[in-house]
Structure formats: structure tokens, C-alpha cells
TrEMBL record:
One of its GO terms (cellular component) is cytosol. It comes from the Eukaryota. Residues 497-684 form the Rab-GAP TBC domain. One of its GO terms (biological process) is glomerular filtration. Keywords: Coiled coil, Cytoplasm, GTPase activation, Repeat. This is TBC1 domain family member 8B. PROSITE patterns: TBC_RABGAP. It comes from Poecilia formosa.
Length: 1126
């Protein structure tokens, strides 16, 4: 195979290689001893050496070297395990390159030519491997070449797929090809001699939607912040739209919030993303959502099959999904029959004899001596082998880590917690008693000790035994435990409300939190030990909210309940510091503790926060906001009349936000809300969407007549207050005061009627039965793009609001500069060596860069990124590229003296404001500071240049509410002390002399200063006058410095003088030549040509426009060049 040319100093070091063929430029060599049967000592030694080396260090037996005549340096350009493979490469070199090399006079140029050709061959092989992964490799290879040719993007920009389509410009369609890559979508058309091409980064896409117009039956509309584009006439529009939706979602999650949002590791590696990977990921996301599996689960097989369902006495057709730890089955009609089998409960997976009535059967045997039969499995042998390999690995892991506990359980033979299919062996009391905290952690649900008395309680107690009998009958028919058959019949039972005696068990079953509990024995007690006693921002917030959690329930009017709630919330914050603690978690945990044991409540909270409501409880509550946007879309789909009457649905979605965050616990009467939680654990977020739509549908007429947001809120609040249950009959509130009767006459009617929660849930499940998890996941993917981009717009607005008071740049230009700044950050993440930029950015988040606010930390540039923007935006020419590189390095050091070595947008805007908008003396002062050692620019700079005036020794923690790491949390505890010290520092700074001079400049630094001035004047229309003026100024300053030097020397001879501080922090010797900033400024002001040059206004708007045109291609070309030289 071809190799990246690697330098070899000695062509035959230690005589390990034998030359087989050679010419003036190439050598074909064989490893000594390879293939020989002689007993020569050298061959035996080499063979022994190759044998003892591991597989990664072994050398292939054949190689081809590129050599330069007369040089001892060669390069390995190809290698192979067989002589036939290497001979093919040799023949190619001889026939294609050897004659061409003879025309080079410089042999070094010939070597560079060959190395470039070899790199091209390697790139072609990479394209070939990528193309081989596609359905039609040859066509994909051709499309890949056209993509690289038309758009000039680096080779690392991975093309995913392409489609033939039309792009509309007004009423004119342009037929061409749409190329979809990992970071961009690009369109190219060449028709009737006119070329149309453009590139849209996914990071700029704010909305993707399918539309229909008079000209286009169906099209895809792509909206950015600047314009809209429509694409139509796809051969398969559904497929194209699905790929575009996924790529936009993945890119934004990866670039805009890589820490806050969960993203699969495969998708974080852009080089691995292909169309096939996207298809697999779409199925995986659907399976995780449908079965509420852990986010770490990897999907392996998707196989159509049929499962024997005893309750229907027939086989039910559907699809089998296999993951790391589960076997999942879903019927063809989503929700009619599902089955979840944890591999931890599986005893064996075996093939049975195939018959005409039972083709390709597979038997899954459980530990409880129950079995499931699957038939009609394609590729049965491979599927069973794959499942058995994962089963063996899981069983081995359990045998190693749990053998002692399992053996003890088998001896004691405890009564199983679940009595049918699923035997978890939950003797938790025995386990917990062995823990140090056995007297602290509650072993029973709080409801057993603290039962809330309610009106009509005695009359409704009879409903509990009835429900328990119904559930017992259901367990007998459908099974009990995680792997029970979940059908539409169980939906009706759940809608009636789960009996209190079974509620904790069934919540654990539906969420499969019991598997996590069983596989992590002692984990919670250990977390409690580690977390209790630790103080942090999360624990402070938890303490503040403890007594706000169900304050009317007797369990949380007692120290026992409060302590249990504290332990659960603190343990979870310790387990998952990325989430820590968020408001509404206290309400949810309180309800979980009422019906489940404390350790079970902890694992239920884990299931809700990490699996059932993904991304809900991060620092920006992205998941909840996405679902609010999805809810608005569902209102338009399912309640079109209401959507027409209420054009602005954001009002309704803002009201419904608490419905999703607290699962209706904060808006419904307690017993009714617990029934909603029952449905949530059974069906997931789908049940909340259905119930929310049912609530709006029930109040559609009144909501349509609303005149303001407050009235809509009153209607919905009044309705939800009247939703009762059999256990908790609703007591109507007292009538409103007479003064409000007229104004609220429309809302009086629903205030006196009683709504049963069971009826409301049944209506929601019936009327919106066709709402599927697949549809919700697709909408989430689309609306996540909109929500993330809305957050980006808010961040931009906040950043500009923070920066604009301190600069004189116009708002339009400042906005464009922010876009350039952000794009520069993204370009490096697209194609550059992101190890520096991305690692620094990640470190800033993870280590809690508390010296900067959230806005300042959002996008920051490292040195290469800043140098790129410097070349695009600096107002003065720099003469040669080398000197421009020097100036950009000095400017970066001046702007980023902190230990993180990153420039914020505020610093960046301040720099450009100095160059484009400030007075002459400020510009000269900045140039002066560029030519003295940067170590002194911040610590000894005059306070008036710092805006705002802040101490550099004690950074103020602006982002106090959301610390990122534990180290930051500990530091934030001293927030008040830091604030007081900051105010004292400000007073001291103001008391200092405002005219404190800058350090003196020595002769070497002054020469560099003059060199910079000369380079700035290059190409100016007044170039000659400027050169003469700077020559005059240079001569004058040299004379001033010399005169000062003589005076110092004379004074030192008469009496000892105090040393003068220099710009590098050292003390000037008596005979040191120095000048001050004031002397240089005064000298420059004597020349009108220089004054005119620095006072001449520079057009920042034009510079920004040029930068927008050149940034992408210039940076892409530079990054490609950098990669090619590595």
C-alpha cells in the first residue's frame, strides 16, 4: 500500500534490508531473512527481531524507497506483505513517473514532486474506501470529485450523500445537484452557460420545513438568518429531508452545545458519518425513545419477526431490536404490543427446530423458568450468535462482580419482589442493613408512614381493592415484571390510576429502574456517604427548595421526609454534576419518595432525568424548550381551528412549560397528578403531549375568545383545578367576588363543573391515539434546530449589549464582527486541528473558567484563529507577511494575557475600536504597547485603558448560578468576599495617578517600532511623504534619546541616581538609551503627513464586507495547506 512519505536516514541500517530492484530514484527492498530457508546468522537475527516485536511494531517485509541521487536521505513511500503487491506499485512508478523525473534539474524538486503524487494516490484510496461504503461506489466517487472541484473545501469535509434536484430563484428553477456534507449543504448548477453555486453551513440553518406552493407540489425550504431557499423535484424527497434534518441537528448539537446536550460518540467523529450511519442512528434514537432505554445503549440488530403472545393465543408480527443489554419487540402498530427483555434476566437464547408452522424459531429462556418464542427471523444463525456473545459477556461480568451476593441470595431464598416473569431477587432490606447508613436510608415508601387524609377518603377506600384485583388478573394473563406484555389493555388500567400498593413496583417496572438498582447494589448508599456534608451551589439550592416540595403533605412536614428528599437530591447532584440540581426535580423526587423506597426513588429519578426526559435538566433546559416547540407544532396539526383563532401559540406553550417540567404535578390536584405520573412511566413523554392536547381541546372555545394572555392562563388554571379523581373528589372553590363576576363571566362555567382525571386521560389516549413516538422524535429533531438557533440569537444580543457601551463601532458592524468571530471559531472545528481550540474551549467549560461570564466564554479564539482575522480586518498594510505575522502575534499576546491564552469577543471588538474609531494618540499608544514586552501590558498599564476597570488579580464570578465543576463551586462560596475586595480594588485604582506613564522603550524596541511604521505606509498614495516624515521623526527621537542618555551619564558621574524602570520590568542601567511614549508622540505630531495618516478614517464596513467574501476560502485553503505539510 502507498504510505505517507516518511524520512529514512540510512537506507540499509544494520543491513536489515536487501535491495531487490533499483534505479536512479527508487529502491525496492526486501527484509533480510524473509522467505529464505538458509541458516545465515543475519537472517536468523532479523527473523528473531521481527518475531519478538508486537503486531503494531512489526515491519512489512517489502518496501519502496524514494531516493535523491547524492543524498543519504530517503523516504519510504510504499510497503507490502507480498512481493506481488509491491511490484504493482513499482511498475506504476516506473511507467508513470520515472521519465518525468529526468526533466527536473533540481533533484530536490523531483523528490517533492513524487511525494506530492504519492499523497494524491493516498487521497484517492481514501475516496475509494469512502465510496465503497455507498450503494453505488463509482457514482459516489464521481460526485465526491465534483464536490471537491466545485466548492474548494478541504478534503476533510466529509461528503455524506448527494441528490439531483431543483433550486428555485423566484419563479425560475435551476436543475443541479445538492451535496450534503457533515458541516455544509452545497448546491451546484451549470445550465445554458450560467453557473450557480453556493454553500450553506448547517450552523447557519435556523429552520427546515416541507412546504407546498403553486409552483412546487412539495419542496424543502431551508431558512438561514439572511435568506430562504427552496429545493424540489427530488426523486425521494422523504429521504433527502430526513438526511438534511439529521445533519442539521447533529451539527448544531456538536457545535453549539457539545457539553449540555447528549450526542452519540459515533456522531461526534465526523469522519465516520455516512448515510448508512445516519439511518442507523435514526432507528437507534427511535428505539431509545420508544422503550426509554439508557442513552448509552448501542443498537445492533433490527429484525422483522413474530412473537408468541399467550394472551391472544397467536403470534404477533413486529420488529425485534437488540441492544447491549436488552431485547426489545414492538408490534407493527406502535403501542399495541411491546416487550422489553433485559439480558440480565435471560438464561439462554437457543435455536429450535424449524417447521412449516414455526419457521426459524428462537427460544429466549428466562431465569424465572419462563420462555419467549420468536419466529420468522431472517439470518437466524448470525443473529443468535450475536445475541449469545453479548449474553455471555454480561453473564461473565455479573459472575465476577456479583458472585458473592448472588450466592448469598440463593442460600437465603428470599421472596421475590415481582411474582411472575421477572425475579429481581430484591432482598434490599438485607443489603441495606449491611451498609453504614442502615439507620439513615429509609427502607420503606413514605406513604406507608405518612398517609394524607382527604375529604371522602372513607367512601373511596373500596376502590383500592377493586383496582388491585384487576391488576392481579392482568398479571396472571400478561405477566409481571419488566418483561410483561404491554398492550392497549394495560393503558386502560393505568388510566384508572395504579393502586397505591402497586404504584412503586409498577413505576420501577415500566421505567426498568429495577435493572439499574439490581446491577448497582450499594451504589446509592455509597453516594450518600460521599455527598452528605459537602457544600456546593447545588446543595444550597436543594436546601432552599426542600420545604417547598409538597408542603401540604404530612410526609414533608416531618424531618424524616425532608431528610430523605435531601439525600436523594444531593446524591443525584453528586452522581451527575453536569445536571446537578434543577428546579422541579424536588417536586418530582418528593412524589417518587411517597410511593417507592428511598433507593428506588433515587433510581427512578435517574431514569427520568437521564432517559425519559433527555436534555430537560441541563443548564439551559433545552429539552423542555424543544418539546414546547414540538407542542406548538402538534397544536397546529391536531387542533387547527384553535391554531387559527390563536395565531401566537407561544402564549399557550409558555403556560404548558410547567406541565412538561413537573409532569402536571404543579398544576393538578395531587391525586389527579399522580395518575398522570402513572401514564408517564408507562408511555413516556407521549402521554404528556396527549394530555396537553386534550386539555387545550376541552377549552378550545374559551381560549379562542381570549383577548389577552392573562385570561388564557385563568381559563386553563381554573380547568385544571377542577380535575379530580375517585380518590380525591373535587371540592369547588368559593365563588369569585362580585366585582369580578362581570369581567370573568366567560370563565365561570368551567369553574363549577367536575372533570374526572380518568375520563380526561382516556379521552386523550383515544382522540390522539395516532400520535406516535416516531413522529415526536422527528419533530424534536427539527425543532431542536430552531431552539438552539434561538439561543444563539439571544447569546448574540446579550454579547452585543455587553460590548456596545464600551466601543464606538456601529451596531451593524458590531453584529457583522460577531458573525466573523463566530465563523472563525467554527471553521477550525470543521477542518482544523481542533485539538487546541476545542480542547481549550472544553477545558474552559469543564474547569469552570470563572473569570469570565457565560457570554464571554461562549466563543473565544486561540492564536491561529486570531491571526486569520487579523489579516482580514487590520486597517493598515503590513508590508510583508512575516512582519504581519509578528504584529498579529504581539497583538494576540496583548489581548490575551490570561492563562487560558484565548481572546474574547469583547477584547476583539475593543482592539478594532482602537484602530478604527479612536483618536490619534490612542492609536499611537496601542502601537507603542505592541513594542514593549507584553508581560507588563496588563499589570502596569494605566487604568484608564481598561474598560471596565477591573482588578486582574481577583476575577469576579459573574456566572454564579451555573458553575460547571466542583472546583468552581467551592470558589463561588466566597462570592460576597470577592465582591467586597473588588470594590476596594476599584477605589485603589481610581486613586492612582491617571497619567501614569508607560514603561520606557529602549533602542532595540524603538527600531522595531520604526520598522512597523515603515511597513504600515507601504502602498499608501502618500507613501513618499510618509517615508520622509518617519525618517525625520526617527532622527529626532534618536537625538532625543541620545541627549537624554548623555544627561543621565553626566548626572550619574556627579551623584548616584535611582535606576529607571524599563519596559521589560528590569532596571535601566545608567548608560541605557531610552525614550518615553510622550517623546515619541510629540515627535510624530511635528509631521503633518503622519498626523493625516493616523487621523484619516478607515472604512470598517468595507473591510468587513471583504472579510466575509474571503474568510471561508482563505481559511479553508490555509488549513488544507497546514494539513498537507504535516
Amino acid at each position: 500500500m502507498w504510505l505517507n512519505p516518511e524520512e529514512v536516514l540510512l537506507k540499509n541500517a544494520l543491513k536489515l534490508w536487501v535491495t531487490v530492484r533499483s534505479n536512479d530514484f527508487f529502491l525496492l527492498q526486501k527484509r533480510r531473512g524473509h522467505g529464505e530457508h538458509t541458516n545465515k546468522i543475519t537472517g536468523l537475527l532479523v527473523g528473531a527481531l521481527d518475531t519478538v516485536l508486537d503486531s503494531n511494531a512489526r515491519v512489512t517485509p517489502f518496501r519502496i524507497l524514494l531516493q535523491v541521487p547524492g543524498s543519504q536521505v530517503s523516504w519510504v513511500i510504499a510497503s507490502g506483505a507480498a512481493i506481488e503487491e509491491v511490484n504493482k506499485h513499482w511498475d506504476w512508478l516506473v511507467h508513470n513517473l520515472l521519465q518525468s523525473l529526468s526533466v527536473f534539474e533540481n533533484k530536490e524538486d523531483a523528490a517533492s514532486f513524487v511525494k506530492g503524487k504519492v499523497k494524491g494516490l493516498i487521497a484517492e484510496e481514501v475516496r475509494g474506501r469512502q465510496a465503497a461504503q455507498e450503494e453505488d461506489p463509482e457514482k459516489f466517487r464521481e460526485a465526491l470529485l465534483k464536490f471537491e472541484l466545485h466548492f474548494g473545501l478541504p478534503s476533510s469535509e466529509k461528503l455524506v450523500t448527494y441528490y439531483s434536484c431543483c433550486c428555485w430563484k423566484g419563479r425560475v428553477p435551476r436543475q443541479g445537484f445538492l451535496y450534503l456534507s457533515v458541516n455544509h449543504m452545497a448546491f451546484y448548477s451549470f445550465l445554458l452557460g450560467k453557473e450557480v453555486k453556493f454553500v450553506i453551513p448547517w450552523a447557519e440553518v435556523t429552520r427546515l420545513e416541507r412546504v407546498s406552493t403553486a409552483l412546487m407540489t412539495e419542496a424543502i425550504r431551508v431558512t438561514t438568518r439572511k435568506r430562504q431557499r427552496e429545493f424540489s423535484m427530488f426523486l425521494n424527497l422523504d429521504e433527502a429531508f430526513g438526511v438534511m434534518r439529521q445533519l442539521a441537528d447533529i451539527t448544531l448539537r456538536r457545535l453549539l452545545d457539545s457539553v449540555g446536550l447528549e450526542l452519540d460518540r459515533v456522531l461526534q467523529q465526523t469522519a465516520r458519518i455516512t448515510k448508512r450511519i445516519l439511518e442507523e442512528q435514526a432507528i437507534r434514537e427511535y428505539v431509545l425513545a420508544l422503550f426509554r432505554l439508557p442513552r448509552s445503549e448501542k443498537l445492533y440488530e433490527v429484525a422483522p419477526c413474530s412473537v408468541w403472545t399467550p394472551h391472544s393465543r397467536s403470534h404477533t408480527a413486529g420488529t425485534l431490536y437488540t441492544t447491549d443489554s436488552y431485547l426489545c419487540f414492538s408490534s407493527r402498530e406502535e403501542g399495541s404490543c411491546t416487550l422489553l427483555i433485559p439480558l440480565s434476566e435471560v438464561l439462554s437464547i437457543e435455536k429450535a427446530e424449524s417447521t412449516s408452522s414455526l419457521p426459524n424459531p428462537v427460544i429466549v429462556s428466562m431465569r424465572t423458568k419462563k420462555a419467549f418464542q420468536l419466529i420468522d427471523l431472517q439470518d437466524r444463525d448470525d443473529l443468535v450468535e450475536s445475541m449469545n456473545s453479548r449474553l455471555r459477556a454480561l453473564q461473565w461480568k455479573h459472575s465476577v462482580f456479583r458472585s458473592r451476593k448472588d450466592s448469598r441470595r440463593s442460600v437465603s431464598s428470599p421472596t421475590p419482589y415481582y411474582t411472575f416473569y421477572y425475579d429481581t431477587g430484591l432482598s434490599d432490606e438485607e443489603e441495606v442493613e449491611e451498609q453504614v447508613l442502615r439507620n439513615t436510608v429509609n427502607s420503606e415508601a413514605l406513604m406507608t408512614a405518612f398517609h394524607q387524609s382527604r375529604p371522602g377518603d372513607n367512601g373511596n377506600k373500596s376502590m383500592e381493592p377493586v383496582k388491585e384485583r384487576l391488576w392481579d388478573d392482568h398479571f396472571t394473563e400478561f405477566g409481571r415484571g419488566v418483561h410483561m406484555f404491554r398492550t392497549e389493555k394495560i393503558q386502560k388500567l393505568v388510566a384508572m390510576g395504579i393502586p397505591e400498593s402497586l404504584r412503586g413496583e409498577l413505576w420501577m417496572t415500566f421505567s426498568d429502574a429495577c435493572s439499574e438498582l439490581d446491577s448497582h447494589q450499594g451504589y446509592y448508599a455509597g453516594l450518600v456517604q460521599k455527598s452528605m456534608g459537602h457544600s456546593s451551589l447545588a446543595t444550597d439550592e436543594i436546601e432552599r427548595d426542600l420545604h417547598r416540595s409538597l408542603p401540604d403533605h404530612p410526609a414533608f412536614q416531618n424531618p424524616t421526609g425532608i431528610a430523605a428528599l435531601r439525600r436523594v437530591l444531593t446524591a443525584y447532584a453528586h452522581r451527575n454534576p453536569k445536571i446537578g440540581y434543577c428546579q422541579s426535580m424536588n417536586i418530582l423526587a418528593s412524589v417518587l419518595l411517597l410511593y417507592a423506597k428511598e433507593e428506588e426513588a433515587f433510581w427512578l429519578l435517574v431514569a427520568v432525568c437521564e432517559r425519559m426526559l433527555p436534555d430537560y435538566f441541563n443548564r439551559r433546559v433545552i429539552g423542555a424548550q424543544v418539546d414546547q416547540s414540538v407542542f406548538e407544532e402538534l397544536i397546529r396539526e391536531r387542533l387547527p381551528e384553535l391554531a387559527e383563532q390563536v395565531p401566537d401559540l407561544s402564549t399557550l406553550s409558555s403556560v404548558s412549560l410547567s406541565w412538561f417540567l413537573t409532569l402536571f404535578l404543579s398544576v393538578l390536584p395531587f391525586q389527579s397528578a399522580v395518575c398522570v405520573v402513572d401514564c408517564f412511566f408507562f408511555q413516556g413523554i407521549k402521554s404528556i403531549f396527549q394530555l396537553g392536547l386534550a386539555v387545550l381541546d376541552a377549552n378550545a372555545a374559551q381560549l379562542s375568545a381570549c383577548t389577552d394572555d392573562g385570561q388564557a392562563l385563568m381559563i386553563l388554571t381554573s380547568f385544571l383545578d377542577q380535575v379530580g379523581s375517585e380518590e380525591s373528589p373535587c371540592v369547588p372553590p368559593p365563588p369569585p367576588p362580585a366585582t369580578e363576576e362581570n369581567s370573568c363571566s366567560d370563565t365561570d362555567a368551567p369553574a363549577v363543573r367536575h372533570i374526572n382525571i380518568t375520563d380526561l386521560i382516556s379521552e386523550a389516549l383515544g382522540k390522539f391515539r395516532d400520535l406516535s413516538v416516531r413522529h415526536i422524535e422527528r419533530l424534536r429533531c427539527l425543532h431542536r434546530v430552531r431552539v438552539l438557533q434561538a439561543h444563539e440569537d439571544t447569546i448574540k444580543e446579550n454579547t452585543l449589549r455587553l460590548v456596545s457601551p464600551d466601543v464606538s463601532i456601529s451596531p451593524e458592524n458590531l453584529s457583522d464582527l460577531y458573525d466573523l468571530f463566530k465563523t472563525e471559531h467554527f471553521i477550525t472545528l470543521y477542518w482544523g486541528d481542533s485539538s487546541s481550540a476545542a480542547a481549550a474551549e472544553a477545558a474552559a467549560w469543564q474547569h469552570g473558567d470563572s473569570g469570565h461570564s457565560f457570554v464571554e466564554r461562549q466563543y473565544r479564539l486561540d492564536r491561529p484563529q486570531f491571526k486569520s482575522l487579523y489579516g482580514l480586518l487590520a486597517p493598515w498594510p503590513s508590508g510583508c507577511s512575516q512582519h504581519m505575522d509578528t504584529l498579529s502575534n504581539r497583538t494576540f499576546t496583548l489581548l490575551a494575557p490570561d492563562r487560558d491564552n484565548l481572546v474574547t469577543f469583547k477584547d476583539f471588538a475593543s482592539w478594532l475600536d482602537t484602530l478604527y474609531c479612536e483618536e490619534l494618540n490612542v492609536k499611537i499608544r496601542f502601537l507603542y504597547r505592541l513594542h514593549i514586552p507584553p508581560a507588563l501590558t496588563e499589570s502596569e498599564d494605566e487604568p484608564s485603558l481598561r474598560s471596565p476597570l477591573l482588578s486582574t488579580n481577583r476575577p469576579l464570578y459573574l456566572n454564579k448560578e451555573t458553575p460547571v465543576s466542583e472546583s468552581e463551586e467551592e470558589e463561588v462560596k466566597d462570592y460576597q468576599e470577592q465582591l467586597k475586595q473588588m470594590l476596594q480594588d476599584l477605589v485603589k485604582e481610581k486613586e492612582k495617578d491617571a497619567d501614569k506613564p508607560l514603561p520606557l522603550m529602549n533602542q532595540r524596541e524603538f527600531i522595531q517600532f520604526c520598522k512597523t511604521l515603515y511597513s504600515m505606509f507601504h502602498g499608501d498614495p502618500e507613501e513618499n511623504d510618509l517615508f520622509q516624515a518617519i525618517a525625520t521623526v526617527t532622527s529626532l527621537v534618536l537625538q532625543i534619546g541620545e541627549a537624554g542618555h548623555r544627561e543621565q551619564t553626566k548626572a550619574s558621574e556627579e551623584k548616584p541616581a535611582k535606576p529607571t524602570p524599563l519596559s521589560d520590568g528590569a532596571l535601566a542601567a545608567d548608560d541605557e538609551w531610552t525614550v518615553s511614549y510622550a517623546q515619541i508622540l510629540a515627535s510624530l505630531l511635528t509631521e503633518q503627513a503622519l498626523v493625516n495618516f493616523f487621523e484619516k478614517p478607515a472604512d470598517l464596513t468595507e473591510k468587513i464586507a471583504q472579510a466575509k467574501q474571503n474568510q471561508y476560502q482563505q481559511r479553508a485553503g490555509l488549513l488544507t495547506l497546514q494539513k498537507g505539510t504535516r
